[in-house]
Amino acid sequence: MEVPGSSKPMIATQEEMVEARVPIPYRDQCAHLLIPLNKCRHAEFFLPWKCENERHIYEKCEYELVMERMLQMQKIREAEAKHKQSHKQGAIPLIPKTANA
């Protein structure tokens, strides 16, 4: 399944996420990494020094998604500013310029 506007595909299916009891806000393109991380955490009794590799991989995936969204928003803002600037140049001024000013 492909997510529009993202370079990462959805790997985990809805059935896998429901079976692994992944909370709805965490069902994104990195959910396939969260499932083994949560299994490891549960098996290791949530000890913070365990499952470091799985946690690092999951957090890197989430970071990449955030950076991708930030880049997309920056492009949208630049396009809006360019659009606004082009409309401003061709607009009729509210205060007319006189010949003596």
Task: Write a concise synopsis of the structure shown.
The chain is mostly helical. It is built from three helices and no strands.
Protein model, in words:
With 101 residues, this protein is an all-alpha fold. α2 runs antiparallel to α3. The radius of gyration is 24 Å and the shape is elongated. The N and C termini lie far apart (63 Å). The model has no long low-confidence stretch (mean pLDDT 90).
Count every helix, treating DSSP H or I runs of 4 or more residues as helices.
Answer: 3
Q: What profile does the largest beta sheet have? A: none
* Share of β-strand residues: under 5%
H/E element string? Answer: HHH
Share in helix: 55-70%
Shape designation: elongated
Q: How far is the first residue's CA from the last residue's CA?
A: 63 Å
* Average pLDDT figure: 90
Membrane topology: Peripheral membrane protein
Pfam family, one: NDUF_B7
Protein name: NADH dehydrogenase [ubiquinone] 1 beta subcomplex subunit 7
Keywords: Disulfide bond, Electron transport, Membrane, Mitochondrion, Mitochondrion inner membrane, Respiratory chain, Transport
Keywords:
3 helices, elongated, NDUB7, 101 residues, mitochondrion, transport, 56% helix
